[in-house]
Amino acid sequence: MTSAEVPEPEPPAFRQRRFEPPPGATDLFLIRHGQSAPYVDGTLFALIDGQGDPPLSPEGAAQAQLVCARLATAGIAAIYVSTMRRTAQTAVPLADRLRLSPVVEARLREVHLGDWEGGVFRKNVAQGHPVALRMAAEERWDVIPGAEPADAFAARVRAAIERMAADHPGQRVAAFTHGGVIGQALALAAAARPFAFTGAENASISRLVISADRWIVRGYNDTAHLDGLA
Question: To which H or E segment does residue 80 belong?
Answer without folding.
Answer: strand 76-81
